[in-house]
Amino acid sequence: MIIKKEQHSAPLTIDLTGPDGNAYALLGYAMRWCKQLGREWKPITEEMTSKDYEHLVEVFDKEFGDFVTLLR
């Protein structure tokens, strides 16, 4: 019998003041994670881009905040 050790990865963190915090990077993360999670990408991106950057961050946090921490 082969027993696999569970891998626990560290929580993801995105520094919004760095290069990963720009709108295009956040949209890229959102698209990738939607594909991985089997979620619809279009409604999320439409909501993210419907207003300003702060709204984009709020929607991103609402949709993906369970497994990523945003730092300001």
Keywords:
72 residues; mainly alpha; two-stranded parallel ribbon; 3 helices; 2 strands
Care to describe what's here?
The protein is mainly alpha-helical and 72 residues long. It has one domain (12-71). It has helices at residues 23-37, 41-48, 53-64, and strands spanning 12-15, 68-71. It has a two-stranded parallel sheet with strand order 1-2. α1 (23-37) packs parallel to α3 (53-64). 10% of the residues are buried. The model has no long low-confidence stretch (mean pLDDT 90).
Main pleated-sheet profile: 2 strands, parallel
What value does the Rg take, in angstroms? Answer: 14 Å
What is the helix content?
40-55%
Low-confidence stretches: none
Tally of helical runs: 3
Question: Biggest sheet, strands in spatial order?
Answer: 1-2
Shape: globular
What is the average per-residue confidence, as pLDDT, rounded to a whole number? Answer: 90
**Structural class of the helices, strands and pairings?**
mainly alpha
Q: Note the gap between the termini.
A: 47 Å
Beta-strand percent range: 5-15%
Number of domains: 1
